[in-house]
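Record type: monomer structure entry
Structure origin: computed from sequence
Chain ID: A
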Amino acid sequence: MAEIEASGPLPETMSTGPSAPAKPTGIPDMPKQHGLCHKIVWRVINFVRTYFLPLALVTAILFGALVPWPGQFLAKTPLKFILVFLIFLLQGLGLNASEIKRALKACSVCPPAWYWITWPFLHVCRVSCVESSLSSE
């Protein structure tokens, strides 16, 4: 057997160790500065990006409990309806239609997709008709 000289790094096909786990997309690499402050800042940034929703919810709840007057003022305005609409709109824009279709097809126990699409509409119509008939009497 011929021995391989260790004159340089091994080619990628001959690497000996396990490969590094894939880095999540959207998180930039840490700059080349190796100071402790830079490492701490980048770890905090990555932590906040990863856990943004729970951190935002806890912050909003604490702020609302400690400083209630902005919420009391905004409760009198139609802003809450606009914000709820924007939340659902932005979440809907972020959905991937192929993932929804795949999830509905994968569920063998669930009713077909048309049921999940038409049921809320029919339920609202039914409730509206019942309420309108009760209020007219």
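Annotation 1: Helices lie at 36-50, 52-66, 69-74, 79-93, 97-106, 113-136.
Annotation 2: Residues 78-118 form one domain.
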